[in-house]
Amino acid sequence: MSTVEPFTIEQFYKFLQQGKLMASKCQKCGKIHLPPRPLCDNCYSQQFSWIQVSGKGKLVTYTIINVAPAQFQALAPYAVGIVELENGQKIPGMIQDIAREQLKIGMALTLDFGTCSAPQQWPAWPRYCFKP
Ligand SMILES: [Zn+2]
Fold first, then answer.
1. How close is the Cα of 10 to the center of ligand 1, in Å?
2. Which of 12, 31, 119, 132 could pair covalently with 26 via S-S, beta carbons 3.0-4.6 A apart?
3. Nearest 5°: phi and psi at 127?
4. Whole-prediction pTM value?
5. How far is the CA of 30 from the centre of ligand 1 (A)?
6. How many angstroms is it from 76 CA to the middle of ligand 1?
7. Residues with beta carbon < 5 A to ion ligand 1?
8. Cα(41) to centroid of ligand 1, in Å?
């Protein structure tokens, strides 16, 4: 048996760097946590397994950030949205490669790894973004 990677945000980002979007699934109640957490907020179990989830989803809501924190100033204005993935999970992320006039609630977006513009302050900011 291989050792199971710890269910931490750091490990989550390590998987992202490998191009995999991974969530933790509670072995007791089946709840899926994305990003993973060490304790199930539904049944308080600490028994999890990693599952890979699809990075395809649709835009639920978004805002345009005009005044950004210092480290993101170079990227502003930029869009940040909540995307509902195919498995029903909702995750926040920056939306890139699209003009803001083209942003539409319900549009299809795909999680992108590795090619996103972001400051190199790992793991302060997720190394992923959404693109059409
Ligand atoms: Zn649980």
1. 21
2. 31
3. -90, 50
4. 0.78
5. 6
6. 39
7. 26, 28-29, 31, 40, 42-43, 45
8. 7
- Looking up tokens 């990003």 gives 35
CA distance 86 to 115: 22
Span from the CA of 21 to the centroid of ligand 1 (angstroms) = 20
Pairing of strands 90-95, 128-131: parallel
Contacts of 11 (CB under 8 A, 6+ apart): 5, 36
pLDDT by residue for the chain (132 residues), tens only, comes to 456 889 988 888 888 878 889 999 999 999 999 888 889 999 999 999 999 999 999 999 999 999 888 877 888 889 999 999 998 889 888 999 999 899 999 999 999 876 676 655 544 445 688 999
DSSP H stretches of helix in 9-112: 9-17
